[in-house]
Design a protein that fits this description.
Blueprint (H helix, E strand, L loop, with lengths): L2 E6 L6 H14 L4 E5 L6 H5 L7 E5 L2 E5 L2 H19 L8 H9 L4 H16 L5 E5 L3 H39 L16 H23 E7 L3 H16 L4 E9 L16 E5 L6 H7 L1 H9 L1 H9 L11
Parallel strand pairs: 1-5, 1-6, 2-4, 2-5, 6-7, 7-8
Antiparallel strand pairs: 3-4
The structure holds adenosine-5'-diphosphate and magnesium ion.
Length: about 325
């Protein structure tokens, strides 16, 4: 996998149109592409004009599209949690699992967690693709999803240390009182403790996502030349830089609609590419949207990696 592209920006600015456009462009250059939407309100099919379908479909040679079924990830995620609670705490008969299911299902953060797990899963399953392109949900939810691995990572470290302390205490008690003091399936040994194992598994998952965000991903901010989308763009950029994720390219979509100055200090070190407003955006016209800026990604693959990281691509000019 060469790169994962994430398209972010305010609703309606053209994330789906432009991510579709890049997906077509790359696949027509004979690259394998997996293009997914993790927005619970899907609209890839509306843009490319096909009937909605479940799962993944190869819509052109080498171009695989999926509108990720967030609900099913949520269900799977809940089922997994419940199964784990059942098996890990099988000695605790007092847990009311039915009640627990309701509590967990309605707990805050469940949707983000499910999407985060879904995201990890789809990236993992498509590592052999040349490119992965992800169309993201509206800003609030999107930011929560990208923040979650970092927050969860910190929590998991705390939980791991707490678990170590619990196991150390158990070991100390059993050394004094004898092994029989604890029920048979209460773990004392760190290597045998299921809870610790699960904490470590979750930590590995968030670490892998963070690694993908930092080392493999290109975040593209889509804005329009209107004040609200730009303000939201600035907020997105700042919120992502707080977790050390940096926007590598700004696509000023639907430009020409309003004469608006692009001189925004928050964007001063990021390449900006203008994309014109095209009347009656047909499928053919959508292909054209990426023609200009996407070219660089393929024509200078190595430079592309570097310039998105450090410098400026040939087709993109710094604002004067
Ligand atoms: N460059 C463009 N020229 C004309 N219409 C566009 C352009 N980009 C997007 N659109 C249209 O704007 C609307 C919103 O685009 P969409 O990609 O769905 O936005 P988002 O995914 O950010 O919510 C759609 O009707 C789309 O066809
Ligand atoms: Mg969209």
């Amino acid at each position: 996998m060469k790169r994962v592209f994430f398209f972010v920006g305010k609703g309606g600015v053209g994330k789906t149109a432009l991510s579709t456009s890049l997906a077509y462009y790359l696949s027509r250059q004979k690259r394998s592409v997996y293009f997914a939407s993790i927005d619970p309100a899907h609209n890839i099919c509306d843009i490319i004009g096909c009937p909605p379908f479940l799962g993944e479909r190869e819509i052109e040679h080498g171009l695989f599209v999926e509108e990720v079924d967030v609900e099913s990830y949520l269900r799977r995620f809940l089922r997994k949690i419940i199964e784990e609670i059942k098996s890990t705490y099988s000695y605790l008969k007092i847990i009311n699992l039915d009640r627990m299911f309701e509590v967990i299902k309605n707990a805050p953060g469940m949707e983000e967690s499910a999407i985060m797990h879904g995201l990890n899963d789809i990236i993992d399953r498509h590592r052999d693709m040349d490119y992965i392109i992800i169309d993201t949900p509206p800003t609030g939810l999107m930011l929560k999803i990208f923040n979650l691995p970092f927050i969860t990572g910190t929590w998991l470290e705390g939980l791991r240390d707490l678990r170590y302390r619990i196991l150390d205490r158990r070991a100390a008690i059993s050394a004094i009182k004898g092994k029989e003091y604890f029920a048979k399936n209460v773990a004392i040994d760190k290597k045998k403790d299921k809870v610790l194992k699960e904490i470590m598994a979750q930590k590995a998952l968030v670490d892998s996502l963070i690694k993908t965000f930092k080392e493999k991903s290109i975040f593209i901010l889509v804005v329009n030349p209107d004040r609200l989308s730009l303000m939201e763009g600035i907020r997105i950029k700042n919120a992502l830089s707080n977790i050390n994720i940096h926007i590598k390219l700004i696509l000023m979509n639907k430009s020409g609609l309003l004469p608006l100055s692009l001189d925004i200090k928050e964007f001063s070190h990021i390449p900006i590419k203008k994309i014109p407003f095209l009347e009656n955006l047909s499928k053919e016209k959508i292909y054209q949207l990426a023609d200009d800026w996407a070219k660089d990604i393929l024509t200078h693959p190595q430079r592309h990696v570097n310039y998105f990281m450090e410098g400026w691509p040939s087709g993109l000019r710094r604002r004067s």
